[in-house]
Amino acid sequence: MARANNSIYSALAANLLIAVTKFIAGAFTNSSSMIAEGIHSTVDTSNQLLLLYGLKRSLKPADKHRPFGYGKELYFWSFIVSIMIFGLGGVLSIAQGIEHIRHPEILKNPGWNYIVLALSFIFEGASLIIAIKEFNKTRKGIAWWKAIIKSKDPSGFLVLFEDGAAVLGLLIVFILMVLSHNYNMPFLDGLASVLVGVLLIFVSFILARESRSLLMGEGLTPETQKKIKVIIENDEDVIELKNILSMYQSPREVLLILVLTFKPELDTEDLTMAIDRLREKVKREYDVIKFVIIQPQSIKRINDK
Fold first, then answer.
1. What is the mean pLDDT of residues 166-192?
2. Tell me, which fold does domain 222-304 have in CATH?
3. What GO cellular component is one of the record's annotations (predicted)?
4. Between 20 and 30 A from 85 (CA), which of 136, 159, 224, 257?
């Protein structure tokens, strides 16, 4: 969480400063693509604030209304962020670009735009480098895309994708702005805005897919489930582990339900001790598993099936 906060704070500071300068430059130079970039940076700033809010809410302790805690708040606000990238970032940028393609206007004093783009690239690039370094610490040698798919902390890869899209968007705007200025083709400025919008919508779909999956309840990996099965079935009082149900409540909290059969000769006291022992074994092996519910199943019930 702390690592994710580092990248969020750096992105927040960069986007807040850049958004203001982009809007000012866009107003002075009459540049559609610069206004679109200003919208992009404003949305990103709002996104970082929502992520920080979600992180804070997710740390609230469990109470009578939320017995398993508030961890899923982070997944909810991450999903909202992905929708905002689509609606406020992508759609508005495309609408702005189409308007300027239909009614192109000559850029005024484009030198200001180049200065702002250069500064934005420096700040966004620095923020992206921080996000890459922080995410790189968590992937533990796993391939980048696989690490993103397997990550249970959306705050890390959300900032990574946002900063990456920001840097790529700046490159698109710079290239088309140079062409528009040098070849007197003002409609290219609007095209740049459209391309930035398409880029944001593409990113939003990826982020929405991952955030939705976490919000709906991703479980432990098959590899982890196999290891838990070995731990449980190696216990002297267990006959067989019948089923494993799990769900991430937050990046650091997993709810685990185990359905298993114990030896029939165990009395109530022995069964209680065995359940407590197994619960502690699993928690000791995996500190991310905070809740372990063990459901005994009788042999008679199995034979009846």
1. 88
2. Alpha-Beta Plaits (3.30.70)
3. membrane
4. 136
